[in-house]
Amino acid sequence: MSKKKRAMSKLNRILEMPQEVYSDIPKITITGFNEMIIENFKGILEYEDYYIRINTSLGIININGYELKLENMTNDDIKVIGKVESVDIERNFE
């Protein structure tokens, strides 16, 4: 790890900032079975009303259900609504 990265990591720990704020690690927030917010995503790989695949720095998030929609999307986060039946992650082993 470079000196700059170590210094930033130490500063972030001192300021008690959540890791998802200063890194590209995804954060998934699930509210019931009808809403998900995924922060720090890289892109949308597939999008159907029954299946959504979202790329992140740690792997691919697969969302299965029906009547799935991408409601709000920014450069940093995405909101999925609909009837979520399952979520799984294909982890990158790098």
Q: Could you characterize the architecture of this molecule?
A:
A hairpin with a 2-residue loop joins strand 4 and strand 5. The two termini are 16 Å apart. Helix content is 17%, strand content 56%. The longest helix is centred in the first third of the chain and has 12 residues. It is built from 2 helices and 6 strands. A 6-stranded antiparallel sheet has the order 1-2-6-5-4-3, with no helix packed on it. With 94 residues, the protein is α+β, with helices and mostly antiparallel strands.
User: For this structure, what is the CATH class?
Assistant: Mainly Beta
Question: How many domains comprise the coordinates?
Answer: 1
Order of strands, main sheet, comes to 1-2-6-5-4-3
- List the uncertain runs: none
Q: SSE layout and pairings?
A:
Layout: H1 3-14, H2 19-22, E1 27-31, E2 35-39, E3 41-47, E4 51-56, E5 59-73, E6 77-91
Antiparallel strand pairs: 1-2, 2-6, 3-4, 4-5, 5-6
Salient structural properties:
about 90 residues; 2 helices; Immunoglobulin-like; alpha+beta; elongated
Short summary:
This protein has helices at 3-14, 19-22; strands at 27-31, 35-39, 41-47, 51-56, 59-73, 77-91. It is of the alpha+beta class and 94 residues long. The chain starts with a helix and ends with a strand.
